[in-house]
## 1
Amino acid sequence: MAVQGAKAELRAGRLTARDAIPVAERIEKSLQLADHGLAALQFEPGTVISGFLPIRSEMDLRPLMAGLRGRGARICVPVILDKQQIVFRELVPGAPLVDCGFGTMAPGPEAEVLDPDIMLVPLSAFDARGQRIGYGGGYYDRAIARLHALGRRPQLIGIAFDCQEVASVPTEPHDIGLQALLSESGLRIFDTQIG
């Protein structure tokens, strides 16, 4: 349990730092991230990219997702089905959003469920090796494991503010490293292997 305790401490510290970013500055940094992401991300039209709609003080990916859709990506966002599982439903312009619990909104059950080729992954902390700390529920770990079991290997790109970086993230056997991290200062590529 020492690793979980260390993760919880790092999570709390980095989320406090993220919460301290003034709203106007968060908006500006989200727009900077969108510019970097649109310049750096390469994909074929029809590629399925999962993003997320912001909760609390998260980076706002809506400008980036709109730009990626404009370049031909199919955009989806996570939907919490129960205490164990998320799926990714397609987000199309004008589709109604429903409350999905934990402060999240997403397309309703009529939206198509998609398996992402590229996952833009929310996180609370990350390190220079590409290790991440999520929010503690394990939803993304289980979703990635489910995709791997289906033989799919989505590209994993963490989404964070620069202030969420820590010196070292303690790891557990189920942890899966990121291939890259997108922040307000650009796209960083990590030397990690897909799990």
## 2
Amino acid sequence: MTEAKTSRRRRVAPTINDVAKRAGVSSMTVSRVINGEANVRESTRETVNAAIAALNYAPNPAARSLAGAGQVRIGLLYSNPSAAYLSEFLVGGLDQASRSDAQIVVEKCEIGDHEVAAAQHLIAGGIDGIILPPPICDSRLVLEVLQKAGIPTVVVATGSPPDKMLAVTIDDRDAARAMTRHLMALGHRRIGFVMGNPNQTGSALRLEGYQSALAEAGLTADPELIAPGLYTYRSGLDAADQLLGLDKPPTAVFAANDDMAAAVIAVAHRRGLDVPGDLSVCGFDDTALATAIWPELTTIHQPIAEMSRASVELLITAIRQKGRLSETGRHLVLDYTLIRRHSDAPPRRRPRARP
């Protein structure tokens, strides 16, 4: 065998990890660029493509097939009252699972009822790992059961990721701060806030972001402008009645999710108020509901489908690396975006319209 042939045999083809290292990004980001996914910054896409060209990297279909030869079974335990949120989450997860030759087993449960039994049912069914979207991501009982069983787990959209568990989130506090700043930049100073479910850690972060933005502007959060909510449309109706029934109602309302924001708009219309002329309303999540109502909702875009895709990819990597990822813990924080549509405007300078 000649020396040249020996050298060629020893030459190792570049891997996706080599591309990620050269570009200074995660392997997941490289995968998104290769697959042509939209949720990648253009500057990042250019950097990754430059690294691919420099290394002469080419995805290997045979290697992908081999990696997926042993199909991974992933459990998804859910108890989310928002059908719009769940729909986007399932679309993202199922899409990534089909690309990765994985099977997703969906199990529904009710918090405080039989979430532990549902988790144990998935474990008994032989799942390799589990994804916990909100609100199950914050169930201490479920997390303890999974940790004790040694099941690789990804918690999604929790405000407090457990140690040694995988997590995919956005910065809820900063996103809520950005929305509150946006309303103040329009001229609003009396801004109502509809809280999320107190059992979810992300709810507290969104409230903190709202309060932090007010404090930055030298404003004190008025307790009467903060209404309880449960992330449901029904709770949004009750919160809106409370806020809009005040002697001095807010000129803007920021709800901790789109379902509750839609309810606020409905109550405003019932009271004869124009949105956004008399009342600006903003939400959080950017689910399909945000563009299905009138006026279309200004909201924080939480990349729900992308978070689900990332959680599937992260979990499969941990499973195929025999849990090494989950032992050290890995926390991905994805970007949010403030999407402005038609439900917000500067406060009206004349008296509000009345029924």
## 3
Amino acid sequence: MLLLPQTNQLRALHTVIRDKNASGRDFEVYSRRIIRLLLEAGLDLLPFEKCEVTTPVGETYHGLAFTPRVSGVSVVRAGESMEAELRDMVPGISIGKILIQRDKRTKQPELFYKHLPSDIGAGHVLLMEPMLATGGSALAALDVLREAGVPDGNVVLINFLASPAGLERVGLAAPDVKIVTSSIEDGMNENAFMVPGIGDFGDRFFGTVPASTS
């Protein structure tokens, strides 16, 4: 598990978006700044290949090339908040979607929809799931990727907030999956919301509820 460096800048960004009175525009803008940091850290965990180029002054630079086989998969709906940043950073990247919702009666995650790149099993995957509370949705999404032929070791879980319980559960069930997060929360309340928390990330990012009720 990789926790982003807890810099003053990151703490200031979190302060803005955790404020229940933050405007929808502020929530989106400052969240996207953190998302960019998470994706940069996640991409750095992928394999690189040696690559040489000739510089404008005729010298050889011994560098690295990004892995050509990488896909993004967002867990709908909150995970879609990360798609635009990823597409800006990796032009032409293929992005799949997985829709998982918790059954109101059993409280267990249920798969409703999946659409993945046809060659997803041949490369690495950035799995975009901003909220890791109980870990149930993330594990259900990992099961979908496994069925598509993606080894756990080829998955980087891009996460915004994580609870200690969620990290432990995913770590035990999928120890080879790499996790990148910007914050480890204190825990969860009786309604399985993380505390101090951020509210419903998807609703606040996409503006489907007033920020003051988050």
